Amino acid sequence: MELGMIGLGKMGAFMTERLVRGGHRVVGLDRDPAAVQRVVDQGAAGAATLEKLVGQLKAPRAVWLMVPAGAPVDQTIAQLVPLLAAGDTIIDGGNSYYKDSLRRAEALEPKRINFVDCGTSGGVWGLAEGYSMMVGGDTDVVKRLAPIFQTLAPGPEKGWARVGPAGSGHFVKMVHNGIEYGMMQSYAEGLDVLRHKKEFDLDLLQVCKVWQFGSVIRSWLLDLTVDALSQNPSLEGIEAYVTDSGEGRWTVIEGVELGVPVPAISSALDARFRSQDPEPFANKLLALMRHEFGGHAVKTAAKK
Hints:
With 304 residues, this protein is α/β, with parallel strands linked by helices. The termini are far apart. An 8-stranded mixed beta sheet has the order 3-2-1-4-5-6-7-8, with helices on both faces. The chain has helices at residues 10-21, 33-41, 50-55, 71-80, 98-108, 126-129, 139-152, 168-196, 204-211, 220-231, 247-258, 263-275, 281-294; strands spanning 2-6, 25-29, 45-46, 62-65, 89-92, 114-121, 132-136, 160-164. Helix 8 crosses helix 11 (247-258), helix 8 (168-196) crosses helix 12 and helix 11 (247-258) crosses helix 12. 51% of the residues lie in helices and 12% in strands.
């Protein structure tokens, strides 16, 4: 089967390589010509423009987008639509907001261009391990594209599924990432408690290695934590700043809208927000309030 791949960053490039290895013909396009050349060296075809990419694909065409969520997806779709025909399919494999995916599918429907949203997990490990893919779209369209998903997945019948209509793939991936926030926060907090028990002089790397086998909390995330601690046990040079890419806050917002409590995910999101604030005004105000009502001492910051 053949596919156009737009966006050849690490993940897009690794997906292209996995597809080529699986016997599929892939035409790659990226703003960086060097990125295109890298996938050509792996056996893919290259294109310098959208017109040339679409022109190399046989109908019904399938074009996979691996571009940043938001405006870049809308802009790419707007440029693609005049080049595509009824029966062609656009697949958004990035971390788009599911409501955007619903809107895009609705806008493409009158043009009879299919829209498939594929929530994709696996990162740079996907090349070797395969990707977990949560696919939303028309049943017949997804069935036709199944060879693509089967090649990208850890196995033909595992690690991927059509979870529902367009929009559902990114919805499931959103909640997946919300869960990820909570799991990461739990590991981080638990290991921090261990680190603070100074009289036991615990080796965090050793503890994590013990947990890797037979423990109820063993996971791939724990394996990655072991890898990270093996390289930098004291986390030297790492700033305590954790970004949030959107999925966690979208999950919390959805929980509020549905009336579903998500305290663990909300707490993990709050922790990321706190880490991003170099001057935590709320904590300063708390210190001053305690001083005002109880005369408690206030620790003053050193002048810069």
